[in-house]
Amino acid sequence: MAFIEGALLTETDDCIPFPFGRNADGYARLGNDEYGHVVVCERAHGPRPTPDSVVAHSCGHAPCVNKRHVRWATHADNADDRAKHGTNRRPKVGPREIEFIGSELAHVMRFRDIAIMHGVSGSTIASIVRKVAGGRR
Q: In the chain, what percentage of residues exceed pLDDT 70?
């Protein structure tokens, strides 16, 4: 925990990689149910705003515990970050498909049908359309 305390006091825009135990995905493990990036986010930005909120890294680097690189986000925002950083392990819809769905396909097909085509949920398609096309249909 001393490393986390030091990271919280550090003022830098560089990543602060946790040098000790990490889980299989590279996140800092502080204990059985405690993760470094979550502790840093709670201490720097306050408690989890909603039960569904997750910690997102603006740097895309899982071991990073820099308070400037972590924030509370929705699952969708976190997934968008992973896609931007290229850290999404199993993307179902790539950047080209996202642009096509948002700008062209959503105007001629139902969201449900597009979702089935790409193996994602209808809400994922709706999210893509909102972000790419500004919510216009």
A: 91
